[in-house]
UniProtKB/TrEMBL annotation:
GO terms for biological process: glycerol biosynthetic process. Keywords: Hydrolase, Magnesium, Metal-binding. This is glycerol-1-phosphatase. It comes from Zizania palustris (Northern wild rice). Its EC number is 3.1.3.21. It is an enzyme of class 3 (hydrolase). Its cofactor is Mg(2+). One of its GO terms (molecular function) is sn-glycerol 3-phosphatase activity. It catalyses: sn-glycerol 3-phosphate + H2O = glycerol + phosphate; sn-glycerol 1-phosphate + H2O = glycerol + phosphate. Belongs to the HAD-like hydrolase superfamily. DOG/GPP family.
Amino acid sequence: MASAAAPALAPMAAVSHVIFDMDGLLLDTEGFYTEVQEKILARYGKVFDWSLKAKMMGKKATESARIFVDECGLAGLLTPEQFLEERESMLQELFPSCAVMPGVLRLVHHLHAKRVPMAVATGSHKRHFGLKTQNHKEMFTLMHHVVMGDDPDVKTGKPSPDIFLAAMRRFEGNVEPSNCLVFEDAPSGVAAAKNAGMYAVMVPDPRLDVSYHKGADQVLSSLVDLNPGDWGLPPFED
Ligand SMILES: O=P(O)(O)OC[C@H](O)CO
Ligand SMILES: [Mg+2]
């Protein structure tokens, strides 16, 4: 007797709208921040580690600068403003060379073809957004809109829900948080999505301790592993 086919697993939720983080999720830029911050910290005889990285990533520049100075005990030696100024020229050189993360283009083109509305919600401010995306403009034209960290509606950075709620409100129609699936790499970003009442798929850097995965509704090693059907989105057909 032939064995019955395994029943398809029910989706974890049925969402209709997708919101992407950018740094470390769509674009491979987090390594640039790490590299530059390691260099600055080395000048003070200190080592940049992943527990500090976990606290800084995903935040607005001004917020992460404050964390860097405070957590590294640099008060009196370096102000957050000086830190931002020091890292700026190095970052400006690096950002335009960033690559797209694995699995991103297939997913974005698929969702666009299936008319799933997509947005970007990034802690990056407008000038850095321009540098990072200058070689990836086509992908961003597929987004309904982009909300950046210096947007007037983003009073406080991630883990505040401000940026994801702003992104949700800019979609057409009456969209609720439970309709939205957020893709994030940062602990602060996952917390922001959950604080907004949305679903969160985390795609963390493997060097981030697993204790930072908690809170996410799903954790993937790469967007290549995403099955859109898990979220009630149209499945890949290729
Ligand atoms: O991860 P994002 O896109 O919110 O960006 C935040 C900072 O610019 C980098 O950690
Ligand atoms: Mg990110």
